[in-house]
Amino acid sequence: MLTGFDFDATVVGAGAVGLACGRALSKRGLTVLVLEKEGHIGQGVSSRNSEVIHGGLYYPSGSLKARFCVEGRRALYDFLASRKIDHRKCGKLVVATQEAEVERIEAIFEQATANGVEGLAHLTGAQARALEPELNAHAAILSPESGLFDSHGYMLALQGEIEDAGGSVVVSAPFGGAESRPGGGFTIRVGGEGAMEVSSRLLVTAPGLSAQAVAAAVEGYPAGDIPAAHFGKGVYFRLVGKAPFDRLIYPPPIPGALGTHYRKDLGGQAVFGPDLAYVETEDYSVDPAKAQVFAAYIRRFWPGLPDGALTPDYAGIRPKLHGPGEPQPDFQLHGVEHHGIEGLMALFGIESPGLTSSLAIGEAVAKTLTSPS
C-alpha cells in the first residue's frame, strides 16, 4: 500500500501492545516498522508482569479496560492455542477471607457479569476449600476463564507474524522524534548505531513507561493532551517449597491496583505479588525486608505459609496515569480528535490488563487508523 513512504505504519515500542498493533496493521496489508529502544523485544513493562490472563472482572462498565480485556482474552486464548504457545486456563478464586469482605467480592461478581465474563460462580467457604484445601475463605468467586501464559513466546509469535507479512521489528533503535510531512505522513528520526530517518504514513506510539516523553517528541503534539505520568512499582516474592494452590488466588483489590495475589507459574512454582508503591525512577530492586509484610498479607488467605519461605524474585513498574489516592483512569488511546495530528495514535496508561487486552487494543488502533475518515 506504499505511496511514497518507506513504511505504511511505524509503531514505537516492541512490547506486547506495540507488537499487537503492528500485527493488526500488517493483517490489513500495510508495511509495518516496529522500533524498540532496548536490545530485545518485550524488555519493558511486558517483561515484568504476572503473565496472568485476566477474565475482565473488575473494570467499570463501558470502559476500554472492560471491553478490551474481555475481547482480548477471548482472542488471546485462540491465538495461543493455534500457535501452540504455552498457557494454562487454571481459573481464579477471588476470596473473601472474612464476612466484612463479602460485600466487596459480590460487587466484583456484579461488575464481571455486566462485563460479559463467562462462567462465574459464587462459592461458599466450604466449596472454595473443596477446590483448594489450604485456602482460608469465608466465600469466593470462581472465574474459570482466567489463566496464565508464556508472554515472551506470545511476543515472539507477534513479531514473527509482522515479519512474515513483510514488516520489520528493529531493536536497539530508539525513537528520536517525528515531524509531520507536507501532504501527510511523518518523517521519523531513529537513533542508535544506525541513526537514520524514515518516512511513514501512520504512526503509533506504544512505548509503555516512556509514552509521555515519546508523545512530546512528536512535533506539534499539544502538551495539554499528554497526561501526567506516574510510576507504580510492584515487587514479587517466590515461595521456597511446593505450590499450595493450582488456581490463581486474589484477595479483594487494593486502591489503585488488584493487590498482592498468588499464582502457580507455568514451571509449577508459587509466586506472590505485586504490591504497589509509587517511585520516581525505574528502580527494579526488591527489598528482602518486604517479605514480612508479604507474609502477613498472604497468611490472610493461606494461613499455612511457613516462616522464612519467601525469597525476593523481581519487580515491575506500571505506567500509571493516577497518583496515590487518585481514582484509577481508563486506558487512553489518543487519536486525531485529541491531538489534531492526522495519522497518529498515541497510547497512554496501558497497564493491567494491557497484556490480556493487547490483541483487542491492536485491532482497535488499526481499525481507527485505516477506516475512512
Tell me what the structure shows.
This protein is an alpha+beta fold and 373 residues long. The protein contains nine helices and 20 strands. It has helices at residues 16-27, 64-82, 102-114, 125-131, 151-164, 211-216, 291-298, 336-339, 354-370; strands spanning 7-12, 32-35, 52-53, 87-88, 92-96, 121-124, 139-143, 147-149, 168-170, 175-180, 186-190, 196-205, 230-239, 248-250, 261-264, 270-273, 277-279, 310-320, 332-334, 344-348. The strands form four sheets. Strands 1, 2, 9, 10, 11, 12, 19 and 20 form an eight-stranded mixed beta sheet that branches. Strands 13, 15, 16, 17 and 18 form a five-stranded antiparallel beta sheet that branches. It has a four-stranded mixed beta sheet with strand order 6-7-5-14. The longest helix has 19 residues, at 64-82. The radius of gyration is 21 Å and the shape is elongated. It starts with 6 loop residues before the first strand and ends with a helix. The mean pLDDT is 96.
